[in-house]
């Protein structure tokens, strides 16, 4: 799925990313952190770690890549977004259904005010319609919340709970049941 979207000059192409785009996506992820910290981040193994993560996530996650350029001059990645497909377990009398969790939306600062964030999100929304998702969910940052509200997202209530397993004490070791049997 590819769309040529004129969000500014130069025109931007938005398409579903594939394995050839792993390096570009890793570069955008690095740029995301560097824009936020205001400094380069030294991590020489990051690209390999990202590629490994990509291979694990690829079966359940769809990525979109926004690029400027042309076949002749080459392409430069300027933004990306992805959605994780969550398939609910079916129950008797009903099918399971699917939802999408939108994540990792990022556009280089120099392209952020050119309509590109909305164009990337539109690609995700069209994907959700095609895949017949019941809903799209996301956990926006405080800064991005107004953007998503303008795009039609609504607060989902206070029903989301989270747990960091590392904060819990491990359970006490219990003897194996067979070890307690009388002989």
TrEMBL record:
SUPFAM superfamilies: Acyl-CoA N-acyltransferases (Nat) (SSF55729). The lineage of its organism: Bacteria, Bacillati, Actinomycetota, Actinomycetes, Pseudonocardiales. It is an enzyme of class 2 (transferase). Keywords: Acyltransferase, Transferase. Its EC number is 2.3.1.-. Residues 12-177 form the N-acetyltransferase domain. This is GNAT family N-acetyltransferase. InterPro entries: Acyl_CoA_acyltransferase, Bact_Acetyltransf, GNAT_dom. It comes from Pseudonocardia humida. GO terms for molecular function: acyltransferase activity.
